[in-house]
Amino acid sequence: MNIVELQVNGKPLVFTDSSLKYDRYEFLYSKMSDIKHQAGDKPLFIFRYGEKRIGVPYDPKDEAVIIKMITQIAGILMDQKAGVKQQPSHPGTSKDKSQKTKETDTHKDPSKKKGSAIGCIALIVIIAAVIFGISKCGGETSFTKDEAVKYDNQIDIILRSVDSQENAVEKDIKKFSNGKYSATDLYSKLEGSKNSLHGNWKSLSDIEGNSEYKNSAEGYAFNYYQMCKNLQDAINEDDLEKLEDAKEAIALRGDFRNDTIKARKEFLKSNGLSDKEIEEILSQKYTFK
Questions:
Q1: pLDDT, tens digit (0-9, with 9 covering 90-100), for 157-187
Q2: How far apart are CA 196 and CA 143, in angstroms?
Q3: What residues does 37 pair with on adjacent strands?
């Protein structure tokens, strides 16, 4: 990762290859989790650091640069975790790894865990992305009109796969809330969706050529991946805060989707397609819109 230095409120904000430095503070990427991006008049780069929730401010004009840096950090953290596969402990059982005796408890009945994360998951019937932007470093790639259409088609196919996973997760949560799935069943289903979404994100990342459209699409896929992970943590650890991370973003789902659609339209128009041609693409039955 290249070193990037910005200024905010007269203080340096520096992204190094291993840490974020702001004023007198330094935060190691390896210790960050639950990364979020909060836009607005006073935007923040938010993340968990140990037991604390940190919000680092930045100048609104630097939003594109900040999002690119967040992407790099997220990629580092994902790659670190990708090589280590762990069997989840069963929800409701002891998580003490030093325990030598065989665990015999099964997960507890979700209906009996009033106020717990597992009990509250049933309230989520619409899944939304966490506030997070994904972007690659580098400028926009130039495309011919035909190249732009092919590029758009590649991204569109993957975005439809993301939507398919979203619909699957929503159905799985409804089955859990109706008592058709146990917490362990839901955890397993989320694992499959999470892996598919990670594949979607990687596939988008591998598409040749940089564009804000691709950046937004990557964020869309990564957000759902992170959402699945947060719900798994809520089940496995009975962590209400993880559940809140998913619930807080519900209202932003439409905005995030609209941003991706807007980026798609702008990409097509900037590469020579007329309004009529763009409308024809978006009017197709099977397309991301």
A1: 999 999 898 888 888 888 888 889 888 898 9
A2: 29
A3: 45
